[in-house]
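Render Protein JINGUBANG-like in 3D.
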Amino acid sequence: MTIVPKTAAAASPESTSLRRRKLGVLLADPSTQDSDYSDEYCSPRHRYSDASFTTTSAAVYYSNPSSATSSPYNPMSPWTQPSPYTKSPWIHQLVASSMPDEENAAANNHRLIGSLYREEGHVYSLAAAGGLLYTGSDSKNVRVWKNLEEFSGFKSSSGFVKAIVIFGNRIFTGHQDGKIRVWKLSGDKKNTHKRVGSLPTTRDLLMKSINPKNYVEVRRHRNVPWVKHYDAVSCLSVDTDRGLLYSGSWDKTLKVWRISDSKCLESIAAHDDAVNSVAVGFDGLVFTGSADGTVKAWRRELMGRSTQHVLVETMLSQDHALTSLVVSHAGEAVYAGASDGLVSFWERGKHFMTYGGVLRGHKLAVLCLAVGGSLVFSGSADKTICVWRREGGGGLHSCVTVFTGHTGPVKCLAVERDSSAEAEESDETQWIAYSGCLDSSVKVWRVSESAKAESVEHEEEE
């Protein structure tokens, strides 16, 4: 049984074929045909304002993961079938204007703060820290924003900016050309950022190039040093405790970098297709999601005199591509978004992770995920952002609001704690969410973590 919130601006899906059957739902909206997001998660061989929101009165999701039909490994499972949202006869819809007054008052805790826009291409990546917002686009520019105004910016010599992460005073950017560039804020009056290096370093690349044993075959009649990504860097994640940077690429590999000396420690042939997402977890675990439809868990362990990442478990294997991964702040749950519009999740158990079920809230592919406290944000090709709240254990999640207003697919999300004076005076924990879109805009939202969400009784129709 599923209760799904109604969104204010739903796209009308049409069937469009793709080269790969498992990504058919990505192009269901004809308004996005001119965007390159459709091939984003397909294969490393192919290239990939008005605002409002609808607040539901508690779309509480429940799943029984122990049943045969709810298992993600069952090929006949509804979790692995395309577009289950639009075919479900059990869609429960609510109109905001019909909500009780107290619920309308609660809806005011979720609102649009502002929008950022520059005519320089689609927004592919976001990162927020210390009151600064970094936005990357296909123009090769990285813009830096503060208090909804442009603060500074910097530009790389080549490559779309597909991923951004921040570690201390360093900013790491992953690019379409397979390079990872490292930047630092100079601290001068102009607030400029200076490029301080790239990964792999020139020295490391030259040293590895000397020995033929350091080459790996990436395509027919083409070998490259194992320390270098030969295709787009699609995702980045930082292990702050161990000082490690993880990079995933369309070349199907996961690479591990030591931040202190910029050395590549390991290259893992992680998947059979493009690595679309990587997320550092707990207890030394790292999670990867791929266009091959799998989610894998890795752990760094001592192997002889060195350490290597070993595969702990393949957590999910399905026909639909995995597009995004995120781990909750407390390490209690892992979420994975897919091209079929579902968000699968696992909860932390005594020994490892226990499959919890799926969150249904989108009509098209889920393209990005983010977390803030007990809240989970999912952005989709259907131009909406669902905000879910984890209600303790047992796999229960409430959809507390659905943001609409973007005119294109929501490509990336970033969330940080609201440190404004207004938030400090409030008794509720509030978060600032940034949503980057292929309409070249970034919208800024304020969300209250403890907003009221009541359960709704719903009977399954015959």
